[in-house]
């Protein structure tokens, strides 16, 4: 196998033929050379497999593992089990890393032995020449911990690099079908500091299929379950009963997650779907997708017409359609983490990355 690399880039890919080549170009352009790439092709049915095969024949640092579709969580655990690097760098197949991303994060971890995981500032984009916003939260461990304890996630998963030695100390690897990154951070913070490099080293692509509707809908209840498992809030009575009588081969977290997603009442699910579409109104307005914003409002009403708030989504969308994007962005910045998002003042990813590198 030869000399072990310093960094293992960890990717799970499923039907990403549209964006994968730009992701690959970003990895190939890294200024830091001592890395390998472990890619799990999670049952892709489009041209993804062909693109990955071509990449692996051109770059001997790339290793492709093809399997049936089993989901992100198990794919990440499989990739990490095969990784030989001292550091693990997450990467999503539809995103792009700045050329100096690995170099900056390796240098940071080498200099800070107390840090077990580090993220970065992020630019949100649709296309290379169509940027949406910069996400620049504070870089301190205290900010990250306080935000996690409130049930919010300040770290962009694809931007992180972590010590494999710390990850191996966890009793379990990645857990949960949804919000697996949030759960990981809550457990990693007991092993050392979590930090954010105050440079834009990662570009997060925004597109309609990035996060499935179920993932968005179940994010809040799953995070509540994760907070319970990590001792941040008390257990609910139903979960306490399951824990008290638990006997089986499945991990406890999996049993609790399945119970949560399968036993929600129909009215609760309809309300959660309505809340999802109400959130999508703001997302679409900020990206100037005005017809999509109106469609989201109608979907909110369709999913839960008996909930009065669903009907408020329609005037919200209609008023938003008439407002400039800057006002929409300012309104959305009132959320917990929204205050750290600012509209981009440049027109391309290259400009953002170069500006960050030279600052």
Largest sheet: 10 strands, mixed
Please count the beta strands (DSSP E, at least 2 residues each). 10
Mean pLDDT across the residues is 88
**Radius of gyration, whole Å:** 21 Å
Shape designation: globular
CATH architectural type of the largest domain: Alpha-Beta Complex
> What structural class is derived from the secondary structure elements?
alpha/beta
Overall tally of domains: 2
CATH class type of the largest domain: Alpha Beta
The low-confidence parts are: none
* Helix percentage: 40-55%
CATH topology of the largest domain: Spore Coat Polysaccharide Biosynthesis Protein SpsA, Chain A
Tally of separate helices? 15
Q: Please report which band the strand proportion falls in: under 5%, 5-15%, 15-25%, 25-35%, 35-45% or over 45%.
A: 15-25%
Q: Outline of this structure?
A:
This protein has 359 residues and is of the alpha/beta class. It has helices at 20-28, 48-58, 72-82, 101-111, 141-149, 164-167, 180-188, 213-229, 237-244, 252-263, 266-286, 290-303, 308-322, 325-332, 349-358, and strands spanning 7-13, 35-42, 62-67, 87-90, 96-97, 115-127, 130-135, 161-163, 193-205, 341-343.
């Amino acid at each position: 196998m030869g000399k072990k690399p310093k960094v293992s880039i960890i990717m799970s890919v499923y039907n990403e033929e549209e964006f994968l080549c730009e992701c690959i170009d970003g990895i190939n352009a890294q200024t830091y050379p001592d890395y390998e790439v472990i890619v799990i092709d999670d049952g892709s049915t489009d041209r993804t497999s062909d693109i990955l095969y071509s990449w692996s024949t051109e770059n001997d640092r790339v290793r492709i593992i093809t399997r049936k579709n089993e989901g992100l969580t198990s794919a990440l655990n499989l990739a990490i089990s095969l990784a030989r690097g001292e550091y693990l760098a997450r990467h999503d197949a539809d995103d792009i890393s700045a050329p100096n991303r690995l170099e900056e994060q390796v240098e940071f971890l080498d200099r800070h032995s107390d840090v077990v995981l580090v993220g970065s500032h992020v630019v949100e984009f649709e296309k290379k020449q169509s940027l949406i916003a910069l996400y620049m939260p504070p870089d301190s461990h205290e900010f990250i911990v306080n935000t996690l304890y409130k049930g919010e996630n300040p770290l962009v998963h694809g931007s992180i690099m972590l010590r494999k030695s710390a990850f191996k100390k966890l009793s379990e690897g990645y857990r949960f079908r949804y919000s697996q990154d949030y759960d990981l951070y809550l457990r990693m913070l007991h092993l050392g500091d979590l930090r954010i490099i105050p440079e834009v080293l990662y570009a997060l692509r925004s597109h309609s299929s990035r996060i499935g509707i179920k993932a968005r809908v179940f994010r809040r209840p799953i995070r509540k379950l994760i907070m319970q498992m990590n001792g941040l809030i008390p257990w609910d009575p139903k979960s306490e009963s399951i824990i008290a009588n638990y006997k089986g081969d499945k991990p406890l977290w999996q049993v609790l997650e399945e119970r949560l997603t399968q036993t929600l009442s129909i009215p609760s699910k309809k309300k959660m779907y309505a809340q999802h579409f109400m959130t999508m109104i703001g997302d679409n307005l900020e990206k100037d997708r005005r017809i999509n914003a109106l469609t989201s409002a109608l979907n909110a009403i369709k999913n839960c017409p008996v909930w009065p708030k669903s009907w408020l989504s329609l005037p919200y969308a209609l008023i938003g359609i008439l407002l400039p994007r800057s006002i929409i962005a300012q309104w959305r910045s009132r959320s917990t983490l929204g205050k750290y998002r600012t509209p981009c003042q440049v027109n391309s990813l290259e400009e953002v990355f170069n500006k960050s590198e030279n600052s």
